[in-house]
Amino acid sequence: MISIQLIRWAKKTLLRLGIHKILPARKLTKLGYTAYLSEWIRHNRPPYTSFPYSGFDTRLRYHLYDYLIAS
Q1: Rounded alpha-carbon distances, angstroms, from residue 35 to 55, 64, 65
Q2: Which one is predicted more confidently, 53 or 7?
Q3: How confident is the model at residue 43 (pLDDT cuts 50, 70, 90)?
Q4: Rounded to 5 degrees, what are φ and ψ at 8?
Q5: Alpha-carbon distance 9 to 24, whole Å?
Q6: Which of 7, 11, 19, 44 has the smallest number of CB atoms closer than 10 Å to its CB?
Q7: Which pTM value belongs to this model?
């Protein structure tokens, strides 16, 4: 059985590498959505996020919430 840590690591790695550059997003459904997400993150990264990253720092989300409410 695949552990959640392996799934998170694989997704984080694919997003960091820019999977939208490697895979044709319209042909591969499951990986295609990850490719769309990767491309969106590259173009629309909010200033108060460090996504993707290896740890979960729950304090960062409050800065992001403040930014979203203000915009």
Answers
A1: 22, 23, 25
A2: 7
A3: confident
A4: -65, -40
A5: 21
A6: 44
A7: 0.36
